Amino acid sequence: MIRFEKRPQPSQMFSIATPLLAVVTTMFFGGLLFAVLGKDPVQSIVTIFWEPLFGEFAFYYRPQLLIKGAPLVLIAIGLALGFKAGIWNIGAEGQYIMGAIFGAGVGLAFYPTESVFIFPLMILAGAFGGWLWATIPAVLKIKFGTNEILVSLMLVYVAEQFLASMSLGLLKNPEGFGFPGSRNLQQYDSAHNADIIAGSGMHWGVVAALIAVIFAYVLLARHSLGFAIRVTGEAPRAARFGGVNPSRLILFCLGVSGMLAGLAGMFEVAGPAGQITIDFNVGYGFTAIIVAFLGRLHPIGIMLAGLLMALTYIGGDIAQSQLQLPAAAIQVFQGMLLFFLLAFDLLTNYRVRIGSNEVAT
Amino acid sequence: MTTPLLSLRGLTKAYPGVVANDDVSLEIGRGEIHALLGENGAGKSTLVKMIYGLVKPDSGAMEFSGASFAPQDPRTARAGGVGMVFQHFSLFDALTVAENIALGMENAPAMSQLAARIREVSESYGLPLSPDRIVGDLSAGEQQRVEIIRCLLQDPKLLIMDEPTSVLTPQEVSILFETLNKLRSEGTAILYISHKLEEIRTLCDAATILRLGKVVGTCVPAETTARDMAEMMVGTTLKTPQRSGATAGEVILELNKLSLPPASAFGMPLREVSLRLRKGEILGIGGVAGNGQDELLGALSGETRANAGMIEYKGLDMASMGPNARREIGLLSAPEERLGHAAAPDMSLIENAMLTGAAREGLVKGGILNWSAARAFADQIIEAFDVRTPSAGNAARSLSGGNLQKFVIGREVLQRPDVFVVNQPTWGVDASAAAAIRQALLDLAESGAALIVISQDLDELMEISDRFAALNEGRLSQPRPAIGLSVDEIGLMMGGAHDEEVTHG
């Protein structure tokens, strides 16, 4: 009989090894899935993981890696701060939308004035929009003890309705021949979040994501606020005893994660997406939850996980078009990654014992 | 000579890395109250779990009423006539007494019949208990009665009791002892686990002493001194904490009708707690668990805020200050629960040193943490308080209870508090660690600090306190000099002297 025995302390080795183990296992079972669907498993896996980086069209896919990875990393960093403290912001998707609407709204308000101050103002507005949307569940939690998971999640749907209303109403392009959607910010120089080096995919959102990684790393490792976050997640009563004010921590964690999600939305709408449309959001806010856990809630881990996730997106797209793999199979593949990660996570805190069936004390 | 009721021969049980029981033999006769003595980790729990069918021995044999006895699970043990009252109750707060008892029975009779039987048993054994009451409203002593009656309904031949008096007032203890004596006279054997030696001396007929899984001696408790038994348990000579009777100085902390609402539905409010604490004195606060101890510590540590004017420290109104502001001006505390409250279980000792040491030990500057200073502080605690751990980098939960408690106490003591508030300083700690902790508390008072020691161990409070007060239902009795207090007086203070049930006229 197989038993799990709690380790006296978490295994260092396994906390690093489990993400790798999860990736390898996902490759194996994903390959199995693709084989059942009648595709060559090896070729499928190679297409997903190799093609975007070193394939024939890598010059096109590599910038995509940054474009898709940056919002994931930016959002996941914010979420991880909360998750570490046991504060569960599930509504980053909504905060992402609100950041985009606020950022684009400020930009469009100035149209067609050209000024170097417009883009920075949009950044502030985007951050504010996300912060505002995340502060709603924070305040409700502090004042009335509501569950932030439910409130933040429900607010995603409110934000989606708001997005639809904006792209059909207030922000609709007056010269858009009646089509829903705002003006394209890519064609408005002062508001365009262009590549810093043309064709590299390196826009300001990537820079922001890098700064966020460094900021979160320093915060968690060296700052008393980061320590408060970690203790609260490990032992809330001990944190309180250590002088942590839980209400302030909720405001901070939800606020920062909302702000970063809002920033991600703003950089997306002003750059790769270009305009506010009904279907502007594509699930970065939800995928970032996977990225945060895949990266072990560690800033560096999240950066790598964000890139890996972006890789499976891009590779998945290639596999869909080249090998005619169904989109659902790709989604299952991505889901497997989280599933195996959580499953292997058990090994960090427990060791497996195969032996006699006895009652433990 | 008749055959014993239960005889254990050569019981051995090993877990990975530790032999919990090594060749343990003992015999219990009918109508005998047999004490099982030993420090934490001596193997008492493992031994009784084997008798109760929770753990299977690796080797050795048991005989019960002359027949071979090897219970597969607690149900077969109960069917064979063994009952057990655990230290921690397994009761549902929201259900009535009768419902709780019915849940634990194999084939429970109809509720009205069961209620009648509960009344019958509770009367005949002098354990007053109404079957219709909600368990959440009962005192700890009454909850224990539910557990005992649950066992008695099964008509056990052997009753195992694990530290039954740790949650009782002296008056409740004497009610319990009457009951146990009555059971003894009817021929029921009792295996009694405790570390309260005086209790064992008055109650038990025989004692078996365990140390590190082995039987190190047996004795007749009435003919052995408590000190001798303690030394058999520990295996070394015990040092009695030493103190010189310093005179108390000026008032440093004053509580003025400190009142707090309960934190949760089954929580306890604080009701007009007033006291004046002087430099250099130790105020011992006794009371049965759940009478406001945690709440009082929380109000003093700053985890819960009181209204203005209720807490005065060095003439300062401290009511609105948080834990760290209080630490900075010299009021430190150590809560009862080591894992999860005083320390974060999965964090290292370095991080746990940072938890309360940050402000006073200069471990943080402008929000930036100085981990090497925290490590040095953790090492200093480990060194000064003889904390046994491979390194300061180990997780708090990897330490034994006694070692972690030494760390928690040491962490605060080394920060040179002016006022130190501690709840249950030696709870679940082995005798030698307990002695070291008490000595550290006495030394701290000697150096001029004022201490509030909240504890459920009356012997401990009498040993170290200058003055004694008791918490009952969130009220604090008037503190009185500890010297010369009789057990009866203490019991009345603990019981609040208003709702005590006297049943053994």
Keywords for this structure?
heterodimer, A: mainly alpha, ABC transporter involved in vitamin B12 uptake, BtuC, two-stranded antiparallel sheet, 14 helices, B: 505 residues, alpha/beta, Rossmann fold, 2 domains, seven-stranded mixed sheet, six-stranded mixed sheet, 23 strands, 23% strand, disordered C terminus
Describe, in short, the structure shown:
Chain A is an all-alpha fold and 361 residues long. Helices cover 70% and strands 3% of the residues of chain A.
What does this structure look like?
The complex is a heterodimer of chains A (361) and B (505). Chain A is an all-alpha fold and 361 residues long. Chain A has two domains: 1-39 and 325-361, no CATH class; 65-324, ABC transporter involved in vitamin B12 uptake, BtuC, CATH 1.10.3470. Chain A contains 14 helices and two strands. Chain A has helices at 12-36, 41-49, 51-54, 58-84, 92-110, 118-144, 148-168, 204-222, 224-234, 236-241, 246-270, 284-294, 299-323, 327-349, and strands at 2-6, 350-354. Chain A has a two-stranded antiparallel ribbon with strand order 1-2. The longest helix of chain A is centred in the N-terminal third of the chain and has 27 residues, at 58-84. Chain B has 505 residues and is of the alpha/beta class. Chain B contains 16 helices and 23 strands. In chain B, the strands form five sheets. In chain B, strands 13, 16, 19, 20, 21, 22 and 23 form a seven-stranded mixed β-sheet that branches. In chain B, strands 6-7-8-3-9-10 form a six-stranded mixed β-sheet, with helices on both faces. In chain B, β4 (59-64) and β5 (67-68) form a beta hairpin. Chain B is globular, with a radius of gyration of 24 Å. The two termini of chain B are 37 Å apart. The model of chain B is unreliable at 498-505 (pLDDT under 50). At the A-B interface, α9 and α10 of A face α1, α10, α11 and β18 of B.
